[in-house]
Amino acid sequence: MNCNVGNADRIIRAIVGLALISLMFFMPQTVWGWVGLVAGIVLLATAVLSWCPVYAALGLKTCHTEDDSSHGGHPVA
Description:
By secondary structure, this protein is mainly α. The protein is elongated and about 45 Å long. The chain starts with 6 loop residues before the first helix and ends in a 19-residue tail after the last helix. It has three helices and no strands.
Protein backbone atom coordinates (compact mmCIF):
# COMPACT_ATOMS: atom_id res chain seq x y z
CA MET A 1 0.00 0.00 0.00
CA ASN A 2 1.50 3.26 -1.12
CA CYS A 3 0.48 6.57 0.40
CA ASN A 4 -2.34 8.16 -1.58
CA VAL A 5 -3.90 10.41 1.11
CA GLY A 6 -2.15 13.71 1.89
CA ASN A 7 -1.83 15.46 5.25
CA ALA A 8 -4.71 17.92 4.79
CA ASP A 9 -6.92 15.08 3.55
CA ARG A 10 -5.91 12.95 6.56
CA ILE A 11 -6.77 15.71 9.04
CA ILE A 12 -10.20 16.28 7.47
CA ARG A 13 -10.90 12.53 7.41
CA ALA A 14 -9.87 12.15 11.06
CA ILE A 15 -12.06 15.04 12.24
CA VAL A 16 -15.11 13.93 10.26
CA GLY A 17 -14.54 10.29 11.26
CA LEU A 18 -14.32 11.14 14.97
CA ALA A 19 -17.42 13.34 14.67
CA LEU A 20 -19.42 10.54 13.05
CA ILE A 21 -18.26 8.02 15.65
CA SER A 22 -19.12 10.37 18.51
CA LEU A 23 -22.64 10.92 17.13
CA MET A 24 -23.36 7.26 17.80
CA PHE A 25 -22.88 7.85 21.52
CA PHE A 26 -24.91 11.05 21.75
CA MET A 27 -27.85 10.32 19.48
CA PRO A 28 -30.42 7.54 19.55
CA GLN A 29 -29.08 4.30 18.17
CA THR A 30 -30.84 3.96 14.84
CA VAL A 31 -29.87 2.41 11.53
CA TRP A 32 -28.44 5.77 10.45
CA GLY A 33 -26.41 5.89 13.64
CA TRP A 34 -24.83 2.55 12.78
CA VAL A 35 -24.17 3.68 9.20
CA GLY A 36 -22.46 6.79 10.58
CA LEU A 37 -20.40 4.67 12.97
CA VAL A 38 -19.15 2.45 10.15
CA ALA A 39 -18.44 5.46 7.92
CA GLY A 40 -16.56 7.12 10.79
CA ILE A 41 -14.44 4.03 11.36
CA VAL A 42 -13.60 3.81 7.65
CA LEU A 43 -12.65 7.50 7.50
CA LEU A 44 -10.52 7.19 10.63
CA ALA A 45 -8.80 4.07 9.28
CA THR A 46 -7.97 5.74 5.96
CA ALA A 47 -6.58 8.73 7.86
CA VAL A 48 -4.35 6.53 10.02
CA LEU A 49 -3.17 4.32 7.14
CA SER A 50 -2.73 7.23 4.64
CA TRP A 51 -4.29 4.94 2.05
CA CYS A 52 -7.77 4.98 0.56
CA PRO A 53 -9.01 2.07 -1.58
CA VAL A 54 -11.37 4.36 -3.52
CA TYR A 55 -8.48 6.70 -4.38
CA ALA A 56 -6.41 3.67 -5.43
CA ALA A 57 -9.20 2.37 -7.69
CA LEU A 58 -9.64 5.79 -9.32
CA GLY A 59 -5.90 6.50 -9.57
CA LEU A 60 -6.14 9.58 -7.33
CA LYS A 61 -3.43 10.74 -4.95
CA THR A 62 -3.34 13.76 -2.63
CA CYS A 63 0.00 13.04 -0.95
CA HIS A 64 3.48 13.87 -2.12
CA THR A 65 5.81 10.91 -2.55
CA GLU A 66 9.36 10.34 -3.77
CA ASP A 67 7.95 9.99 -7.30
CA ASP A 68 7.03 13.69 -7.22
CA SER A 69 10.71 14.68 -6.84
CA SER A 70 11.32 13.98 -10.54
CA HIS A 71 9.02 16.94 -11.29
CA GLY A 72 11.02 19.43 -9.25
CA GLY A 73 9.19 18.58 -6.02
CA HIS A 74 5.88 19.89 -7.31
CA PRO A 75 2.87 17.64 -7.81
CA VAL A 76 1.80 16.94 -11.35
CA ALA A 77 -1.48 18.67 -12.18
